[in-house]
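This protein record is not my work; I was only asked to verify it. Take the sequence as given and treat only the tokens as open to question. I have pasted the whole thing underneath without changing anything:
***
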Amino acid sequence: MHVVYRFSVGGLENGVVNLINHMPESRFRHCVVALTECDPDFTHRVHVPSVEFISLNKPPGHGIKLYPRLFRLFRQYRPAIVHTRNLAALEAAVPAWAAGVRTRVHGEHGWDVSDPGGMLRKNQRIRRAYSPFVKRYVALSGHIERYLVERVGVAAERIERICNGVDTARFHPAPGGARIPLADSPFGSRDVLVVGTVGRLQVVKDQLNLVRAFAIARRNGGEAAARLRLAIAGDGPLRPAIEDEIRQQDLADVVWMAGERKDVPDVMRSLGIFALPSRAEGISNTILEAMASGLPVVATDVGGNGELVETERTGLLVPAEEPVTMAEALMCYASNAALQNSHGLAGRLRVEQSFSLDGMVARYTELYERLLQRRSH
């Protein structure tokens, strides 16, 4: 039983989808419980027909009022494993313990919008208070693993580090290495160089910083900058502010707000450079998807990004909230096609060797089975 705050578009949720779709059906059955809601459109990404989705419609605030309902749910379904994810769902470990679920796993995928660096002492205290109800932790990056040990006080031997994996069959470079423009994109010409990003439009993802960096690159990049275009895929509360910034920078003709997309692999193959301007990250699925698609990556040096991007080999890392530095990185690629190509090829190879979906599924399968074996002894 996977317990999440909301089962909708997002990197964490995509990871759950990939895990369910690729784990051996003969060995595991799955149920997804969202403390708030399971988005019906998003649940269609799960291809395993036996999976049940349960929405608890939790109101804002602490979830203690849900404890009786969660307790009854765990008693009814009697899951062998309850796997909660991130701080918003951690509280479900208490009713799972009370209901007699012996194998309780908690995954830490990244930081909440209100605590982008994981530095709020209140949140550290909350994690510490719930720690006795968790049997095993999964940290998606070394950065998160260190946080759990040093800030929360979790013993290192209770933590398993399992990085995200990407489907390299679904995300792959465009044939021949040439980008394939999207049918509805205003940037159909193959002569332009499209910088792109994919993700929910919210403060922690900081697409505003990317727009500002793009504007600087266009102004200061000389002849090479004239080819630059920007595509922003995703939707969310930051959209009005991004659109205002585009108007203020007079970029309406060279920036495309593509909205939420269901064709992300095609979006990746329509780009020349991938950019991730986040203020905080765990292990970014979109970076892995971009690398698998053969794209060089310009990303902020936060969270686990440095564990994915090998700077000067598969991409370039820049400080967060520094548009001038990000603009310089974008221009490195705009003015050097050979560098763009070599970093893209190296990124694809790195994903194949270290971040395959099969490898991630194998790690989770091994963890679950090992914990169940211990329970039976």
Notes: The chain has two domains: 2-165+357-376, 175-354. The chain has a mean pLDDT of 94. The chain is about 40% helix and 15% strand. Residues 175-354 form a domain with the Rossmann fold fold (CATH 3.40.50.2000).
